[in-house]
Specification:
The protein is mainly beta and 80 residues long. Strand 5 and strand 6 form a beta hairpin. The protein has one domain: Immunoglobulin-like (Sandwich), CATH 2.60.40. The chain has no helices and seven strands. A four-stranded antiparallel β-sheet has the order 1-2-7-4, with no helix packed on it. Strands 3-6-5 form a three-stranded antiparallel β-sheet, with no helix packed on it.
Length: 80
């Protein structure tokens, strides 16, 4: 985690077998993917960031390949 101006940068990771990773609330800022590693072979691999019904950003995926790894950044606007 680090600070940049009026923002806090938070890193999150997800790998095959992990539960969805709850990040920040949608009213606190935004999230995006910064790294995807591993094998993508066919239609069995998926990574995504979504805003769910509880209003939080989630990082998740699905993979047949054992090596899938994803990293995301949340940009949390300070003072919100």
């Amino acid at each position: 985690m680090s600070r940049l101006g009026g923002c806090r940068i938070i890193f999150y990771e997800w790998k095959k077998g992990d539960s969805p990773v709850k990040m920040i609330h949608k009213d606190e800022g935004f999230c995006y993917l910064v790294q995807i590693r591993g094998g993508f072979a066919g239609g069995g691999e998926l990574v995504r960031i979504t805003i769910e019904k509880d209003g939080y950003w989630y990082l998740t995926g699905a993979s047949i390949q054992q090596s899938l790894y994803v990293r995301a950044i949340a940009v949390k606007i300070l003072g919100r």
